[in-house]
Write a structure and sequence with these properties.
Layout (H helix, E strand, L loop, with lengths): L1 E4 L13 E4 L4 H11 L3 H5 E2 L2 E2 L3 E5 L2 E3 L12 E6 L4 H17 L14
């Protein structure tokens, strides 16, 4: 099962849990599994059967552009994050997400800010 990290503003819907295990091979299935276990989460993540525009989905440290169609592995980690937009700052911020993910697992990452045009 994939590990889903619950955003802090949605933890009350998940009984205060920081992360949960959910079955599914796509983001859509993960969201449906979350909703089944913790009613109300889907409405906070999805609008018109798509991930809300103010939310990004990171699977195993990579922000996916596929939304609900994003592929999720059996041992994947899924994060629902506030979407970051606009200019070169968004490149830096997305680099930060990836750098955080790598370093949180004992790896070494460099700052994406240095490579931002």
């Amino acid at each position: 099962m994939a590990t889903v990290f619950i955003p802090s503003l949605m933890r009350a819907l998940a009984g205060g849990l920081h992360r949960v295990e959910v079955e599914g091979s796509t983001v859509r299935q993960i969201v449906e599994g979350l909703e089944k276990a913790h009613p109300g989460i889907r409405a906070r993540l999805v609008e018109n059967d798509k991930i809300k525009s103010n939310i990004s989905v990171a699977i195993d440290g990579e922000v996916t552009p596929l939304g609900m169609l994003g592929k999720v592995g059996e041992t994947s980690e899924v994060h629902f994050l506030p979407a970051i937009g606009g200019g070169s700052g968004s490149v830096y911020a997305l680099g930060w997400v990836t750098s955080w993910w790598v370093t949180s697992r004992g790896g070494e990452a460099t700052s994406s800010k240095e490579s931002t045009p």
